[in-house]
């Protein structure tokens, strides 16, 4: 479900929706509680509420902070893989000047076709599904290098280096596809823990005794926004190749820009 949300809902709308839903829902609960249990406003139970919040608050903060750090690390790892894939293509393009013109043109065209196919499949690959066009383009790129007949030691050395770069490009693409499948964000059990702790934090804010209604509503609204923002961060970072906070195909597009004008 989180994958579908990140894929189809713009980040701004997702954040706004979470803030509105969480804040409005919590404020509605607060209005009911203050009306149904007017004695709570006197704050006779605040010592107990403070103790409960002092336990739940730090646990909630640690849990969300830990999850965000882990997910951000996955996004950085995905970004590194994408950059390596793009950098390998650029390095292969730079080595083309050492080949014969016919070989260079053929490899350049095959490399450009692969990069375009990889960018075209990005949204599909973000879910771990490769496109046949990209697979075929990669196979043709390998075939283009295999047909090269080096004429001297320098060309043989460059060909070996280019094949190593090609293997790195292929490996990075495989890692990218695997990461898109395996790095699927928190499990359902962990989501349950997140929602439970979020509910406890909001619950303690609601039952806290405060005679001034405006102050109480403002406090609950502020805590609700904090919880909504945390839920937004976890949702956005759950899938490293999706959403505005995820890794983009910019590294592959830079390789296309480098190849195009040549």
UniProtKB/TrEMBL annotation:
<feature type="transmembrane region" description="Helical">
    <location>
        <begin position="188"/>
        <end position="209"/>
    </location>
</feature>
<feature type="transmembrane region" description="Helical">
    <location>
        <begin position="12"/>
        <end position="33"/>
    </location>
</feature>
<feature type="transmembrane region" description="Helical">
    <location>
        <begin position="53"/>
        <end position="73"/>
    </location>
</feature>
<keyword id="KW-0472">Membrane</keyword>
<protein>
    <submittedName>
        <fullName>DUF4239 domain-containing protein</fullName>
    </submittedName>
</protein>
<feature type="transmembrane region" description="Helical">
    <location>
        <begin position="216"/>
        <end position="235"/>
    </location>
</feature>
<keyword id="KW-1133">Transmembrane helix</keyword>
<dbReference type="InterPro" id="IPR025333">
    <property type="entry name" value="DUF4239"/>
</dbReference>
<dbReference type="Pfam" id="PF14023">
    <property type="entry name" value="Bestrophin-like"/>
</dbReference>
<keyword id="KW-0812">Transmembrane</keyword>
